[in-house]
TrEMBL record:
It comes from the Bacteria. Coiled coil: none annotated. Keywords: Oxidoreductase. The keyword Plastid does not apply. This is Oxidoreductase. InterPro entries: NAD(P)-bd_dom_sf, Sc_DH/Rdtase_CS, SDR_fam. The lineage of its organism: Bacteria, Pseudomonadati, Bacteroidota, Chitinophagia, Chitinophagales. Belongs to the short-chain dehydrogenases/reductases (SDR) family.
Length: 246
């Protein structure tokens, strides 16, 4: 039997733009109750209003995933308003690209803090609730950068692959109590590249994205696919890239 999206409580980090925002809209349109976190309040407020105007259910909390307490408050909000958490989508992420011999240590640290530690904080906030409920689903947004290793993306890819490794251990430890899914997007048309500091790299990535990138809908559909499987089916890894990506 299909595991319906309707009435599932789904917490999504990084919901203020790109993949997180589209995933929130897509899930809410299918009847999920979405609990949205990110740092930009105005974006979240306007997204929640949009979802409500179309009959959906959504709440938000300003959340910085570098702070463990923010993730705890986010899942607490889900429990307060909707009484449970069915799915935790650890989507928030940043991508600083540089050669390793440029030794951009602060950028490395920020990626480790957000992409790795922030995701772990999301997992840590959700697991006690999943244990109490006897069920739950962690979905981590990874990257094809971790599958095909290329220059400039070493540390970024490392943070994503660290999450992949940890999540596989979690899956095996769970003994079927909760499901664990990793979704690895390739080039997706979002704001991610806007934050690349080096101007030439930013321009090159944006040009490539403009030529080949797919829309965030492709990733949102993968989230829906993973959630909607029967409870005894765990979708482990999904890779979604533009057909013409190397
Ligand atoms: P966006 O830049 O559009 O979205 C990133 C989201 O993460 C924003 O909502 C941002 O919100 C949030 N975020 C960043 N830092 C924090 C933080 N400290 N606390 C809370 N939220 C934070 O990019 P995408 O939608 O593309 O990125 C989503 C995920 O997809 C990321 O994990 C990224 O690595 C991954 N990905 C993207 C690819 C692409 O080509 N776009 C390819 C492969 C993977 P705010 O600034 O409001 O906090």
């Amino acid at each position: 039997m299909e595991n319906e999206i309707k009435d599932k409580v789904v917490v999504i980090t990084g919901a203020s733009s790109g993949i997180g925002e589209t995933t929130a809209i897509t899930l809410a349109a299918q009847g999920a109750k979405v609990v949205l976190g990110a740092r930009r309040k105005e974006r979240l407020e306007s997204l929640v209003n949009r979802i409500k105007q179309t009959g959906g259910q959504a709440v938000y909390l300003v959340t910085d995933i570098k702070k463990r307490t923010d993730l705890i408050k986010l899942v607490d909000l889900a429990c307060e308003v909707y009484s449970r958490v069915d799915v935790m989508v650890n989507n928030a992420g940043i991508s600083h690209l540089s050669r390793i011999d440029e030794v951009q240590v602060e950028d490395w640290e920020e990626m480790i803090d957000v992409n790795l530690k922030g995701t772990l904080y999301g997992i840590a906030a959700a697991l006690p609730i999943f244990k109490r409920q006897g069920s739950g689903h962690i979905i981590n947004i990874l990257s094809t950068s971790g599958i095909k290793i290329v220059p400039l993306q070493g540390v970024y890819a490392g943070t994503k692959n660290a999450v992949r490794t940890i999540a596989e251990a979690l899956r095996q430890e769970s003994g079927g109590l909760y499901r664990v899914t990793g979704i690895s997007p390739g080039f997706v048309n979002t704001e991610l590249a806007e934050h690349i500091k080096d101007e030439a790299t930013r321009a090159a990535i944006k040009e490539k994205a403009a030529t080949i990138a797919i829309t965030p809908n492709a990733i949102a559909n993968a989230v829906i696919f993973a959630i909607s499987q029967p409870a005894n089916v765990d979708i482990g890894d999904i890779v979604i890239r533009p057909s013409i990506q190397d």
